Amino acid sequence: MKYNLTVQRANLDLELAEQDKNIAKNQFLPTTSAGISQNYQLGFTQNPLTGQITDLNTTQSVANLSASLNLFNGLADYRNMERNELLLLSQKYSRLNILNDIAVSITRGYLDILLRKKQLDIAKEQVAISEALVAQAEQQTTQGTQPISNLYDAQATLSNDKLDEVRAINAYNLARLSLVQLLQLPYNTYTAFDVKPERVDVGTEWLLRRGNDSDKAEEKYLEALQVSPSLKMQEYTMQSLEKVIDIRWARFYPSLDISYQFRTFYATNNLTDGDPFGDQLSNNISNTFSLRLSIPIFDRFQDIAEVQKAKVNYEASRNTYEQNKNSIRQTIEQLITDIRASVKSREAASRNVLAQEKLFEITQNRYNEGLSTVIEFNTSKARLEQAKSNMAISDFDYRFKVKLLDYYTSDTYFRDK
Hints:
Strands 1-4-5-6 form a 4-stranded antiparallel beta sheet, covered by helices on one side. It has a two-stranded antiparallel ribbon with strand order 2-3. It contains 9 helices and 6 strands, in the order H-E-E-E-E-H-H-H-H-H-E-H-E-H-H. By secondary structure, it is of the alpha+beta class. It has helices at residues 5-26, 76-143, 148-182, 205-208, 213-227, 229-249, 277-283, 302-368, 374-409, and strands at residues 31-41, 44-46, 53-55, 58-72, 255-269, 286-294. Helix content is 66%, strand content 13%.
């Protein structure tokens, strides 16, 4: 998935969340700064060397160093650090959720390629049967044992089967192209792109255990609550919004800051050169220590409005979280019902294929012996083709739904890594 732009964006969002967490942690450190300045002043001014106000031209070089530290602000910085840690966890699960969604799409694409390949094989089988039928009809027509209309009918059937083969080839190519595009690989790779028809483990022993589907749905739902990245993402987002409420309440508390400033300067003017450079820097040193207490009194009710907004955002997030839980429950219940139906559908389709194969074998023998018409032969052949196609579709539907249920309830896909 390294080529997928959505995954790349999720990785960048995760890096941004990591930096936001670092910024929040660094708020506990003091801020320091240093500076120098060069000042020129003309006219009446206070002589920095004597303190008298005189008419002179002054040149002053100033150096300073300052530091400040917040001692208390209602625990706002601490709550903000907790909030950003929760947002980082939320972003991690958001990335996992994106990876899972892509993995499901890849699984669907993989199974779709297998389905289209199976349908193509069925189409090729039908072409081979029709080609043999045309060859037989040509021989029988030449011998005069069959009317020429049988030959035309066989040739028409072959043409239709070749048309179906072309459509099957196109469907197979489109399935491969779709998966290549999903993986965001270059277009020219799709012609050589294929998948191995390996056996996909879709065990459903749990479905065959005694007990009703309601209990099994509840079991799978409880499993989903423990592993679902989307739920964990929303859970951490909801907790971070709860921290925002505490941050907004912190504005009602006093704020206490401590600061320190070091300052020195060197000055000259047109009346006197003053002391030497080093002596002035040493003699003009000043140290300032400050302790600042700020008490909020009235801010036109803005802070209380921000608290109420934070509470509403938290409730909205909790509502979304509960909606997602209900959606997962409903999806699991539907999947279990669909899987049970798919199991029965596969069994019925398998029995139908066996029956149609035997029926076609009988019809083919009867046609070779001249005991059945070409219409009966083509009808039996079409039924066999439809039965095999239905079997392939039923198998695809069953496998995908089982893997989709696995996506919601197990660690087969990307989880907390």
